[in-house]
Specification:
The structure is a single chain. By secondary structure, the chain is an all-beta fold. It is built from 2 helices and 49 strands. It folds into 4 domains: 114 residues, no CATH class; 107 residues, Immunoglobulin-like, CATH 2.60.40.10; 337 residues, 6 Propeller (Neuraminidase), CATH 2.120.10; 78 residues, Immunoglobulin-like (Sandwich), CATH 2.60.40.
Length: 682
């Protein structure tokens, strides 16, 4: 997006040192990492408290930026190159004394990161943000044993009775290599859950991603605090306890119920919730904010390529007092051009995918520069014109032209349907670069290309995807092939560099091979578009017929169970809401719709009153009464909190009860036809 002219120049003051250090001094090297615009940067090593340009020990990169050039956007050529790690030093510094690193970025969008090595041991590191900062370090060796939790990526929004992975990143900061340690977590200060980790080999400065072997299973809804730390390092105590803890504030919702079976009885009810009067303008997709207390439903509009798309946030959608807010980012022409999909993450972020070849809108040069964009749903950040010319976006990656749909997996990890190459690409933004910045080098991208997905040649009807987080299967609409595929995201391995582009440098960009995938639906679809998975049910929207088609995923073959009218042709994205009802957007009628089960079938709570379960809680055997063979329809199903079928039994075999002894402790429901009731397994 910016023209780049590089002339490599280093500005080095005479007191650059290379001699052996004297008594009371330590040898210091500083590794400097540049982003994709290294020429915009300047930095100095200074005595603690000295302003830039005063008592300078060393100066590096572009001297034309200088001490006062932060954010001026003069874009003077010179200095460091792009995407490099440059080692400066050695510097002989007084042991135990504080020193400063000052740095400035001409464009004001972050540029340099630093790692300080004392006598060959990593002792401090700093990641540059914004227009520039001053960092302070002590010229001394770290303690022998020191580990810190540097990142938590445990989901901030979860569901009752659904396992929560405790994940994040540790860093070894001690002088001694770490060979073993204990990984601990507590929930609201309770009994620590401990996992022994080893053997490992972590030297000072090394990062170690972690996922605790025992996930947390919340037994109730509400707000909880998870604390994580390392201990018993090499059999000894951590000698610096000030940086030990990583914390995550997790809000637990009731699990979304799978009531899709109720749609197969009676006549479902269609409600038009919003139209163009509420700024629904050629909608392509929708999603719910994962904090159910916010009660927010977001719709994304196509709009035009030049203007960029927009979002409409509905609060209390379909309820009394519903409000709506249409928003456009100042740079949506690039980051949200002709968007096809929206997907909320479990950390208050969301991602969108633009349906254009080149988000810079230069069709003549044949250069693509487009892909999914990461945003914050914080109202003080999203679409606020506070962060410079690159708008409020948190991150963007650029290897998936004509993106057709997007699905969330975990934290900042999303899956995108690449309409140009006809495949599926995993994008893990990892740590975002912050609002309005432009560093993309932290990402991991993996491409799955053993099949061909054909987009709508008119670039209108979407080809969405949906992630079943309970199984790891990604379900993908192939619009042009009138079919649905699925791939097992837990399978496969990297088999070489990515075969398309890129224009940027990433931590990893690879092809994936030897993964499991299959075609599961090959008939009965006219113009498939949207897709959703809930429990053992798969839902697909048909743009041509305006129907939501319901499929059963529990058997060896994915079988169609029935169809629901969603308001006529034009149906695009679909989503199951927090209460289990089906929502969708129609690009032809410019509407947001909600489909509910027939009122005579009733809600799950009403249906539950027709069944009686005893004992409840159950330990080994559960007895069911309240229905007889003349009123029961279908098999007896036991479902977990996510709607997944964990047991199946014939109705006639109930006289001896259900053997639930093998089930894990938690909340379950028994479903017979359209009737259900909940029980707790101890």
């Amino acid at each position: 997006m910016r023209s780049i002219l590089l002339i490599t120049v280093l500005f080095v003051l005479p007191n650059f040192l290379s001699a052996q250090c004297g008594a009371g001094e330590v040898e210091v090297f500083i590794e400097v990492t540049t982003d994709d615009y290294g020429y915009e940067t300047y930095w100095e090593l200074l005595p603690n408290g000295s302003p830039c340009g005063s008592n300078t020990i060393f100066a590096g990169s572009n001297a034309l930026v200088g001490c006062n050039g932060a954010g001026l956007q003069l874009q003077n050529p010179g200095g460091y190159g792009n995407g490099l790690v440059i080692t400066e030093g050695p510097f002989c510094l007084v042991q135990g004394v504080a020193y400063d690193i000052f740095w400035a970025d001409d464009y004001g969008d972050a540029g340099l990161s630093f790692e300080v090595f004392v006598n060959g041991v990593s002792s401090a590191s700093f990641v540059g943000t914004g227009a520039g900062e001053t960092f302070t370090f002590i010229a001394d060796l770290p303690p022998s044993r020191d580990m810190a939790v540097t990142k938590m990526i445990t989901a901030l929004f979860a569901y009752r009775d659904v396992p929560v992975a405790v994940k994040g990143e540790l860093r070894s900061l001690g002088a001694d290599p770490v060979t073993s340690f204990d990984l601990n977590y507590t929930v609201d200060g309770g009994t620590p859950v401990v996992q022994s980790v080893g053997p490992v080999n972590l030297t000072a400065g090394d990062y170690h991603p972690f996922e605790h072997a025992q996930p947390w299973v919340p037994a109730s809804t509400g707000a909880f605090t998870i604390e994580v730390w390392a201990s018993n390092i090499n059999g000894g105590a951590d000698l610096n306890t000030s940086n030990d803890l990583g914390t995550a504030a997790v809000k637990v919702n009731e699990a979304i119920p799978d009531i899709i079976a109720q749609y197969l009885y009676g006549t479902p009810v269609l409600d038009v919730i919003a139209t163009s009067n509420e700024d629904i303008l050629v909608p392509r997709d929708l999603d719910f904010h994962p904090d159910f207390e916010r009660n927010e439903l977001w719709v994304i509009n196509k709009d035009t390529e030049a203007s960029g798309g927009s979002t409409v946030k509905f609060t209390n959608a379909g309820e009394a007092g519903m409000t709506f807010l249409m928003q456009e980012d100042v740079n949506n022409w690039h980051f949200m051009s002709l968007p096809t999909g929206i997907a909320f993450a479990d950390n208050n972020n969301f991602a969108t995918c633009p349906g254009v070849f080149d988000a810079n809108h230069n069709p003549g040069d044949g250069v693509y520069f487009t892909g999914p964009t990461l945003w914050s749903s914080d109202p003080d950040i999203y679409a606020q014109n506070l962060f410079g010319p690159l708008g409020s976006h948190l991150d963007m990656l650029h290897v998936t032209p004509y993106s057709q749909g997007i699905a969330h997996e975990h934290w900042n990890k999303f899956w995108v349907v690449d309409g140009y190459n006809g495949d599926v690409v995993m994008h893990d933004f990892r740590t975002d670069h912050g609002p309005g910045m432009d560093y993309h080098g932290d990402a991991i991208i993996r491409r799955y290309a053993d099949f061909t997905i054909t987009k709508d040649p008119n670039d209108h009807i979407v080809s969405h995807c949906a992630m079943d987080k309970a199984t790891g299967w990604l379900y993908v609409v192939d619009h042009g092939g009138d079919r649905v595929l699925r791939l097992n995201t837990a399978t496969g391995s990297a088999s070489g560099p990515g075969n398309f582009g890129p224009y940027e440098t990433y931590v990893e960009y690879s092809m994936v091979s030897s993964y499991d995938w299959e075609e599961i639906i090959s008939s009965g679809l006219v113009e498939p578009a949207g897709i959703e998975v809930i429990g053992d049910h798969l839902l697909v929207s048909d743009h041509a017929t305006g129907e939501v088609i319901i499929y059963d995923l529990s058997g060896p073959v994915v079988a169609e169970l029935g169809r629901v009218d969603a308001g006529g042709p034009g149906l695009m994205g679909i989503k199951v809401g927090p209460d289990g009802r089906i929502w969708g957007v129609n690009a032809t009628t410019h509407s947001l719709v909600r489909i509910s089960p027939d009122a005579t079938v009733g809600s799950e709570e009403v249906l539950g009153s027709t069944l009686m379960l005893r004992p409840n809680p159950a330990v080994d055997r559960l007895f069911v009464s309240g229905l007889d063979a003349s009123t029961a329809i279908g098999p007896v199903l036991v479902q977990d909190a996510t709607g997944r079928v964990v047991m199946r039994q014939l109705f006639g075999d109930l006289r001896n009860g259900l053997d639930v002894g093998a089930l894990l402790p938690g909340s379950y429901s028994v479903r017979i036809g359209a009737s259900s009731a909940r029980f707790v397994k101890r």
